[in-house]
Amino acid sequence: MLSIIRIRYYQLKNTIKDIGIGYSLFLFFILLGAFIEIYVNSKNISNISNNLIINELKFFLFITLVVILFYLHNTRKDREFIETTIGGAYNVFLAEYLLINIPFFIFFISFKGFEYLFILIFFVIVISSTHLSFNKFFLSNKHLYSFWVGQKNYEWRAGLKRLGFLLMLFWVCSIILCGYPYATLVALLLIVSVITKFYEKCEPLIFIQAQELNASNFLHQKVILQNTILLKFVALPFILHIVFCPSELFLGLIFLLFLSLIMCWIIFVKYANYTPEDSFSISVRIRWITSLGIMIIFILPLFFILLIRYYFLALKNLKNYIDVAD
To answer: 191 to each of 95, 166, 171, how far by Cα in Å?
Structure first.
């Protein structure tokens, strides 16, 4: 156990060096100040408002911690190392997760959130004792691909193998938070942010040529198929959110259009810069971020101009490959 503590110490030390000591201290004091601010303000708010705010804060914090624990445990790559070094990983995982959560245990005790405290400890024990392998589930589950994704959507097939677990975590969170105003919409936006990573790698040219479509039909089919899959993923959280928050129906429909436009933008930018089996450059990612910023500040006319521009650039670039093949 002492060897693991020593290893973790050096890992933490190297991480702080990478981040920078000054920046690490800044982040620490920001978190400490936020906790103190919440605690002090809770004493100055009326009892009714205080209870509502603190209860919601405890709930969101609990959900966030459980999601992070599941994600960390599923993605950690030191299982074999710990098994070889110590012989049993359970005690190491349990000790590490309990140590990480000590500040949050103190928070729940301070604000009398004992139910969240005990449930969180239960989750820590359960997660530590299980060998999660959700990535293998996405690698081997053929029904998932045939129903949800389909054979032609290779971006999603490859993306789910890499990021399927994270995507499902956000999806579950969007359902859990469906009763809170705007919370599900934010979770759905996070889902789309994960999906954008599916398009960072260009497929081999043979994948496009095998469909035997011209550039225009290929691009139109791609937009329809990708948006259909997206709709499958967001349909249940969106419907539940509207059931619990019916006043957000109009906003929700606009938000769905917003997500669809993001998908179109990503597809157009990808094929405007398409090179077989190549990855996107940093400049393209910057244009993605810029496009989202344009939509967030509601300069929609400029966004639509750029969307149309990249549509024609994508057509032109695809014709260089498809027409030559024909």
So the answer is: 31, 9, 7
For residue 77, give both structure tokens: 């790559």
**DSSP label at residue 148:** I
Burial class of 254 by CB neighbour count within 10 A (0 to 12, 13 to 18, 19+): exposed
Structure tokens at 60: 């969101």
In this predicted model, which residue has the larger pLDDT, 144 or 216?
216
Distance set, CA 212 to CA 6, 26, 144, 221, 224 (Å): 59, 56, 26, 12, 17
**Burial annotation 226-238 (CB, 10 A radius, 16+ → b, else e):** bbebbeebbeebb
Task: Using the structure block, give the residue that is written with the tokens 């969007």.
Answer: 174
Give first-to-last CA distance, the chain, whole Å: 64
Let me know if 87 is exposed, middle or buried by CB neighbors in 10 A (0-12, 13-18, 19+). exposed
> What does the block give as tokens for 168?
């499902």
CA-to-CA distance for 243 and 178, rounded, in angstroms?
9
φ, ψ (nearest 5 deg) of residue 201: -120, 130
Contact predicate 272/313, CB 8 Å:
yes
> φ and ψ at 134, to 5 degrees?
-70, -30
The sign of the dihedral angle between the CA atoms of 277, 279, 284, 290 is positive
- pLDDT tens column, 223-280: 998 898 888 888 888 888 888 888 888 888 888 888 888 888 888 888 888 888 777 6
Amino acid code (one letter) for 105: F
The secondary structure of 166-184 as a DSSP string is HHHHHHHHHHHTTTSTTHH
Of 240, 13, 264, which is closest to residue 5 (Cα–Cα)? 13
Contact residues for 19 (Cβ-Cβ < 8 A; gap 6+)? 27
The model carries a pTM of 0.63
Cβ-based neighbour number of residue 121 at 10 Å: 15
CA 317 to chain centre: 30
Model confidence pLDDT, tens digit, residues 64-80:
788 778 777 776 767 67
